[in-house]
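Worked example 2:
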Amino acid sequence: MSTTDNKQHTSPTQMTGEDTLKAAMRVSKVSIAGNLALSVGKLLAGIFASSSAMISDAIHSASDVASTIVVMVGVHMAAKSADEDHPYGHERMECVASAILALFLAMVGAEIGISGLRKIYSGAYETAELPGIMALAAAAASIALKEAMFWYTRNAAKRINSGALMADAWHHRSDALSSIGALIGIAFARHGFPVMDAVASVVISLFIIKAAFDIMKDSIDKLVDHCADEEVQKRISEVVSGVPGVVRIDDLKTRLFGNVLYVDVEIAADGALSLEEAHDIAEKVHDSVEKNISYVKHCMVHVNPA
């Protein structure tokens, strides 16, 4: 599972905190409605069609509802303005929400995997009723709907640069992948290989745990002031170098702070310039970086004599 979606992008579109919050809440409500319908449908299909893989998949969809609620809380808290106790804002609350989501995902994945291994080890699948055609239909419908939800949530997350929402998008994708595993397992079970239904549950758990690992890694990167990726740093350098009066860049540091970025840059300018002229160049660098890279919350500029 790729984590490239968690990297920063350089869209010039500016959105206010209120716009970001509204967009995230709208997407989250759609996710909750879709997952509630899916979890109920897959649970009924799993019960009536005697498919443990489909029941496991229903649990995964139900977990998406809880995770989306966590995302909504995190995004709402991250949108709060800076205050006396938090002068840099609350953006890191999105990272906390993502980390909680990752832990929740990992626990769900472990439980599904352990349950599947117990069935395989005990041989309970040998006496189990073969899964019905309803389970196959539910798995196919789940794949289509969850993939659509992944792209819908992913596009919104990239538009507002929300790590928590991107984590929820990958949760949708992991559900689509787990439904593929369920579909394969059910199909094999119906053709005389009943153990494959339990094996599919184990495969599903691996997808979920992998998603949890990727989400947790991204959250930790943003909590420990990880730098922006190389592409973004290159873009910042191009913007700074393009400001008239900048002779060179002496140093560039970036740090992620939730879904925003802080930039510290040292530039060199003509040493014969007056303080006012040097300050004017620094102001232009500051404004240019924040204008051209929308998620840069603040750019600090230091001027050295060339």
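The first helix runs from residue 17 to 48. The domain at 4-223 is CATH 1.20.1510.10 (Alpha-lytic protease prodomain-like).
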